[in-house]
Amino acid sequence: MPVDHYENFPVASILMPGRLRKPVAAIYHFARAADDIADEGEASDAERLRQLDDFRDELNHIAVGETPLLPLFKRLALEIGAHNLPLQPFHDLLNAFSQDVLKKRYADYEELLDYCRRSANPVGNLLLHLYGEATPVNLAYSDAICTALQLINFWQDVAKDYAIGRIYLPQDDMTRFGISEEQIGKGIADEAWRVLMKFEVDRARALMLRGAPLGSILRGRIGLEMRMIIAGGLRILDKLQSSNYNMFERRPVLRPFDWVIMLAKSAPLRY
User: Is the pTM of this model over 0.90?
Assistant: First the structure.
């Protein structure tokens, strides 16, 4: 599992075929730079949105065959051209980052899934295009995995997100299980909280398992990479469960021993 802002994005993994490391790095640097615009620093919302619009303009330059202005996009344009990558996933990511600037709450699970469709699924879409494996079946499996990974990030980062004014827990779920924003702010992991988080964790796990056949469909090193990503996400969910869903006091992270367990669970499966 990768580090920094895109914890679930396989950047420069030792498992990644050498021919794909440059395009994967270019995609990652685009996503990280756009994410930083939405999240980091002291810029106003208007300035953040303006900078994201500048990124859209650069994508439009690429679309019509013009040379982008920024070095980041010049490198990205080379990889997009070399690997015939679609541009829509990049626009979807920018739309999600723009939404992060303005939208801090999600009414229900369907609204959250719509956000994940643009904030997470484009990454898997682009990787499958790089692999030459972007079939409809594979894309559906990838969407399930990427959305599950996004949800896992949300659940391990409830306190971190609250600190910057965001709550990704669906509001109707919070009401149903009797959880208030004040409780999140105070970091109270009582029985009601554990019941809510078990519900959300179980839902994320089911979604991950729905996409898991992709790890066996993909062959060689990219298949192993995918199975490790799936195993890593499931391992984080296990850690959330074992901590009684108290991510306020102990945010789950992957330790060296976890990698041993993940590798042991990453043998090809048959579904």
Answer: no
